[in-house]
Amino acid sequence: MKIIPTSMAAMAIVLAAGSAFAADALAPEAAPTPPVEESFNWTGPYFGGFGSFAVGDMNLNSRQIFADGNPPPINGAFEISASGFLGGIQAGYDWQFDNRWVIGAVADIAASSYGASVTASVDGAEIFNGEVDVKYLGTVRARLGHAWDRTLIYGHGGLAFGKTEQTLTVGGTTVFNEKQTRAGWTIGAGLEHAITDRISFGTEYAYVDLGSKQILDNGEGLTIKDDVAFHTLKAFVNFRF
Questions:
Q1: What's the 3-state SS for 84-148?
Q2: How far is CA 107 from CA 21, 57, 142, in A?
Q3: How is the chain split into domains, by residue range?
Q4: Could you read off the pLDDT of 211-224 as tens digits, one per residue?
């Protein structure tokens, strides 16, 4: 008499377990949660290369004073249009904070073909030629920008330095050739975009002023100064670590 209730209880347990298994088998599986993509972080060192075009004016100022006043003092100012290319390497480090602001430091050095020349000829024969060239240009700058994930817009500024050379040829003979190492300042803005976690491309504008420098004083009252300032537009690629 006790076997029947026990058998019925066992059967009820088996049926309940089967129903639960069937319900689980028929229930749709939950869609997997897509992974959350982390935003790009600009913090870290980088190294890269660049090329740029430069344009501006070379300003030359001459002053001639004779002790006896005869002939009278001769003063002149000349503005010569200049252009050329620069190409070099750069290295820097960025720090990102508050998930959007980026502050950094960068240094670069470039070979330069930027310069200007003026020529005077008579009957097709050159009688005078003057050249002013920037031989190389380097900068050490700070930059501050705002990041939208992989895109960074920034301003920059700091120290600029380089070497200039002036050459004067009269009748095919070089009568003056001088080189100067000089320092000045630069300021500008740029845009950089990271196409991968390790490679970024960008473009950058800069105004460069290497200042005014006396390039000639013949000890007899003749002095010549030049003022070198120009604009550059750069394209660059950086490799980040």
A1: EEEEEEEEEEEEEECCCEEEEEEEEEEEECCEEEEEEEECCEEEEEEEEEEEEEEEEEEEEEEEE
A2: 68, 25, 9
A3: 44-240
A4: 988 877 766 666 77
- Phi-psi label, residue 21: left if phi above 0, alpha if psi -120 to 50, beta otherwise: alpha
Angle at 65 between CA 64 and CA 67, to 5 degrees: 150
Q: Which residue has the tokens 């869609």?
A: 31
C-alpha to C-alpha distance for 210 and 162, rounded to whole angstroms: 8
The Cα–Cα gap between 129 and 134 comes to 17
Tokens of 161: 């330095």
For residue 147, count other CB atoms closer than 10 A to its CB.
Answer: 22
Instruction: Read off the pLDDT of residues 96-140 as tens digits, 9 standing for 90 and up.
Output: 999 999 999 999 999 999 999 877 766 666 667 778 899 999 999
Fold of 44-240: Porin (2.40.160)
